[in-house]
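If your schedule permits, I should be very grateful for your opinion on a structural question. Please examine both parts with care and let me know of anything in them that strikes you as inconsistent. The record follows directly beneath this note:
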Amino acid sequence: TVLSEKPTTFTITVTSEAGENDETVQTTLKFTYREKYPDETPLYEIVSQENLNDNDVMDIIKLLEQQAEENLGMVMIFTLVSAVQEKLNEIVDQIKTRREEEKKQKEREAEEEEKQRFHGTPVTIENFLNWKAKFDAELLEIKRKKMKEEEQAGKNKLSGKQLFEMDHNLDTSDIQFLEE
């Protein structure tokens, strides 16, 4: 877009190729020719950017500076825009690489967590003996409870002899059953 004729000022919007998920980075460059252009570098600035961080913007400015110095004496706008285009494509690739690295890092962390979850206490003689003492104490307590329950249940139950001694009707009931 041409902004003015004297001095010649225009903007060019440069967009990267689409990366993963159709992500792009974009910047709008503003160029102003100086009187002695191309023997003198044009004035340039980044008017706007999209999906770029400050470090990327600084890298693009340094790239423009370097390319302008290398191309003094030649028409250079196409070269500058092409260099920025390549840089934007590199940035998209770096974003993709960063995301892949983050994904791999998360997978590694999840795997480490999983390993930690299944990694128990190493067994040594001391901790085994401590566990064994606790386990034996628990078993002993369970046996004591069972014995108490059996004793309490046993107090209420009468033996067969005691039943016959208490209830004489039981004496005759078996005999009648046998006779029938």
The chain is about 60% helix and 15% strand. Residues 108 and 164 are 77 Å apart (CA to CA).
